[in-house]
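Input.
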Amino acid sequence: MVIASDLRAGIIVRIEGQVHRVLEVEAKAGAAKMGGIVRAKLVNVKSHRLWELHFRPQERLEEAHLDRRIMEFLFADGDNCTFMRPDTFEQIEIPAGVLGAAKEFLQSGMKIPIEFCEGEAVGALIPDAAEVRVARTASPSHSQHDSSAWKEAILENGLTVKVPLFIAPGETIRVDLRTSRYLERGRIERKHSA
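Output.
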């Protein structure tokens, strides 16, 4: 059990039989006989629906516990991704919705922490950025130094992103997994060019 006044971002609580992750908490002190209030923004770990609730500071909530396991990505098949526990070789299918847009950047053999609640996958701790090879793009142009000039590139995972004009086919780039936007040349590429 956790008291509402002790809520903080990241805690997992069960409300009305549903498991929620606390995203934000704001506590306001009461005046005179009015008690304070704790406002919390929650997200349902299964449906991903946002919910904003108000609690009395002394209200008790049931805290749910997550198990975090390192899983190795094997392959994606339609709306599911297959992961394996490296220690037991047990394979588990996880709905692609749990992984969000980062599903497109998973590569076979990649190890990531997966969060489980009551034996069901409810989240993944995906890194903020990933390195991906450019499959096709126009030839690089080094003559133009305009930093606002971009061209389209098709990545090896099939996604299309905007990249600077100097990026060539076959280069590795870093992409922000939340926005699917180009960040910089891949670290491997920078080591070779230095």
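Residues 74 and 175 are 21 Å apart (CA to CA).
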